[in-house]
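Q&A log
Question type: sequence-to-structure
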Amino acid sequence: MNLVVRPARLLVGTLRPPGDKSVSHRVLVLGALASGRTLAAGLSDCGDVRSTARCLRALGVSIRTSGGKTLVEPPARGLRRPRGPLDCGNSGTTLRLLAGLLAAEPFDAVLTGDASLRRRPMERVAAPLRRMGASVRLASGGRAPMRVRGGLLKGAVHRLEVASAQVKTALLLAGLRAQGRTRVVEPAPSRDHTERLLPLFGAAVRRRGLEVSVRGRALRGARLRVPGDFSCAAPFIAAAAMLPGSRLRAEGVGLNPTRLGFLRILRRMGARIRVVRRRAGTEPEGTLEVRGGNLRATTVLAREVPSAIDELLLLAVLAARARGVTRLRGARELRVKESDRIASAAALLRALGAEIRTFPDGFEVRGPQRLRGGRVDCRGDHRVAMAAAAAALCADGPTALCGSGCAAVSYPAFFRELRRLARR
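Response status: OK
Response body:
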């Protein structure tokens, strides 16, 4: 799908983003492991979460949605062997979490996905699962398709070289059915949705600094509400911050502290954002009010990357509009996302006439620069499509987004909401 986005004077109105994608994946997988029913309100209906649901149904799990609520019921006799490969689509979260789920199952299963997913490295989840006793084989280069055959798992200590909530979750899922305790130690904090959800499902989780651990334990079904996805709200927040006069209200947004690195960076850049209402719970949420204005440059350090990883493409766009030199380093992980997001950031800005300097682990942008209209290749990456749309609102002329349909991977209604909120 090719779409033209025209410049806007400002953004005005109220946004309620869809359910948090990361939480939704985990609720489905934990519900598939639990005895009894799991009922979740507000689950995301995006393409990635549909991939997880499709794979779980192929394993015998019943998943039904009605009236904004999703009911998950595992099969009475345990997960069944799938009749064919499990297609994870574009979702790395689906593949990695299911690898942990399947690590204790007494059958073979093949996990695969689209061309983009099959290019992403998977050895860092495969290797620790092998150490626990599962058989995990990958295609050449350590990539999917991944063949998993479960085994009698033993708890282990895993020291991750790169902070990764997906890898951490896969190992904790395996640890729930392993003998002894499974410990995961990260070099920096990653998002902690799994640790927050597990006690709801009856698991005992121990957290000490950068270590999280579990013991093998049966889960029970749970009832919960999924907050709005901060990463889906972020492009609108960024655009409103760049357009003077904007007045945006984002309601029901997840405010998990491990996801709010981008919010902290934005405020440091001078964005006027305040939380006007908070709701405590397993996953905190609230309402954000954003006012447009002038931005200043900042430096983002490596320790800030994990809590802002999904929004760093937007940082490049903001940097082009901010006064001074914005620097990002320590973000090599961006190279192995749905696209090489450092290269994608460079291609996006250059297509709109801006300059950017890239490094193996980040970029540097001097601003403010004018953005002209242009033609942007979304590279099959939903984050590129949404960041390009935010940039297009601030450009001097119309911008053609090539392959913009990939935004549906995380936010099917993204462009409809953009049209509703933009004032021209």
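Response note: The chain has twelve helices and 24 strands.
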